[in-house]
Here is the input.
Amino acid sequence: MGNEVLFIAGGLLVIVLAAVAMLSTYRMYMKVRTQNSALLRLQKNTHMGSWEWNVISQKLWWSDEAYRIFGYIPQQFIITDEAKYGCLHGDDHFKVKDKIASVLTGDSNAYEIEYRIIRVDGSERLVVECGEIIRDNNGSPLQLMGTFHDVTDCRRVTDKQSLFENVFKESGEAIVITAVNGEIIEVNDAFTHITGYEREAVVGRYPSFLKSDQHSDEFYVQLWQQVELAGCWSGEIWERRKDGVVFPKALTIRAVKNGFDRVSYYIGVFSDITQSKLIEKQLQKLAFYDELTSLPNRTLCKDRLNHEIKVAHRRHEQLAVLFLDLDRFKYVNDTLGHSVGDLLLLEAAHRILGCVRETDTVARLGGDEFMVILTDVASAQSVKLLAEKIIRALSQQFILQTHKVVIGASIGISLYPDSGLNCEDLIKNADAAMYRAKDAGRNTFMFFTSELQMAMSERLDMEKKLRNAIELEAFELYYQPKIDLRSGKISGVEALLRWPGENGVMVMPDSFIPLAEETGLIIPLGAWVLQEACRQAVIWRDAGFDKLRMAVNLSIKQFDQVDIVNQIETVLQKTGLPPELLELEVTESMVMRDADRAIVILEHLRKLGVHISVDDFGTGYSSLSYLKRLPLQTLKIDSSFVKDLGGDGGDEAIVSAIISMANTLELKVVAEGVETFQQLEFLRRDGCSEAQGYLFSCPVPAERFAALLDIDRLVAARRPMVDLTSGVRCQR
Ligand code: C2E
Ligand code: MG
Ligand code: MG
Here is the structure.
């Protein structure tokens, strides 16, 4: 019994012990299981899988995450070494094998290698594999174990980060990052390069240490207001470098916000624009300033005038515009050369500047034209005094190199608001007044007045009518004979333009040719004259007057056209007039203005066979040396010298001198404006070859000139002089 009890008790003890043992095993099992699943979760979260490889049995074991990294569903198949290598990117295959081989052969005990895999779905990932070897006591490898880590995403982030770091570091533009309170957190190398401040010297400081005194406090307040409101400010700003130099920079400040829409820092990006500012300044100088005198040019002058008009309007003030043209500048320029002309302009600019206040504007509009804008004008009287002062200053002798020159100035004045409310009117009216001053004998000034206004509107009206008449070809040509003083017969004819007026009275060329020249209308008008005169000449030639040469007056504007030679050639071809029956009358000033060009053009015309004569000779400033080089046939002595012949003036000497000079140069001489027999006698005695004037005939219409030709033909050649005046009353 005792034994049975003992046995039972023993059995119970064994059962209890077994139960206790089972319980503790279960607890351990549960603990390991818990630890294992925690480990698996950890692996999943960190994209890190573990693996083991038995070197002896060649068996490979992967954790679930290891399968996932390679794109397999865990537990679906048993991984093998071969399958693993099958996933490796072809280019990385050997590098992995080499690494493992080096561990197995004992070169090292652990390794880390990075390689690419192609997952089952075809995507490429970057994996870091770490491995460690376990060896037996003899050092033979038993097992390799380690981890896979999918670093693709992580690498992308770090790559991006290093890209940003590089951009930040290498940027040519300076970058400043500040905290919300404005303290500098970071700057890049370009910042140091541009400002001269090292990173260490600026981190923790406020950027205001860069401020120059070029901007007001208000400027900065507005700048930051804009950053707060719009999140960004861009513009140009002047700041101070470490060496103290103030420089311009193009700056953009941006507020960077966090996920809660709060500004977390500010980024400032800027570049040094000193160079482009310099270029801009030079370009501006070219665009707005006169190169020679450095005075504002026409564009800037208009700009300033517009501005001053606004100011004057606001303050109820007067301002004055003085349009100034130097008298005789052209003569100096033409005779002494452009370099002396330039010196004269420079000195003139200097003298004008010396007459005005600093607040006034002196501009050069071009050529010898200047403009002065006087602001805050007290009265017309004060403007008058200033105009007189400028004229006095410019009338003083100029010493230019070795030349002593005296010029003068004509000034036209317009006042705001009396003679114009806007820039265009003020300039136009001052210009008109200046022309009046010139007409009034130069070296004087003239205010723009209502009479002038009237004259201007009359001029405008005339221009309109002239334009209209050109379109309708409402002009006529009158013809005046030239008489050969030896034979007494008509040797040539001059075509003179007439404009039949509305009231039947002929308008004479002196009253509309200047306007036609100013407006450019002389070009179509002159072309018509040439065409019509040639056409008429052909008619007379066909009627048997085959020696009659037709003279046509050329205007300076026509002469300036580049294709003038072509135009003349075309008219000759079209009308069929032989070139030797056409004579072109040019004036001295036309030819001497640009004598070298004139020589070329006249030579072309001469080659065509056309005759050239210099009209109104004696009134200009011919240079004899040029005269000799010009391909001329005739000089026409101006009527002003002929007028006094037979009197006791010095004009007789002038006429004699012209005739003898023409004889030396083998040129024909025609005396213009011969009205009396005394004049005629004098001219014949002195050897003048031809004459033209009311004594013979005034300019007459074509049919009456044809009648003159018929009479001339009938009269015996031996008769000394034809009196053509009978029946022809001349009126100027
Ligand atoms: P011009 O070429 O010197 O022409 C001579 C001017 O003197 C003409 O004036 C003529 O009528 C005038 N005249 C002729 N004989 C006498 C005289 O004995 N006594 C006086 N006091 N005058 C005389 P007109 O026709 O009034 O022409 C004036 C100027 O107008 C011309 O001077 C010429 O420069 C210009 N002109 C005339 N027709 C044309 C033309 O078709 N084209 C151009 N460009 N200019 C022209
Ligand atoms: Mg003439
Ligand atoms: Mg003349």
Observations:
- The chain is about 45% helix and 25% strand.
- Residues 494, 553, 585, 615 surround magnesium ion (ligand 2) (CB under 6 Å).
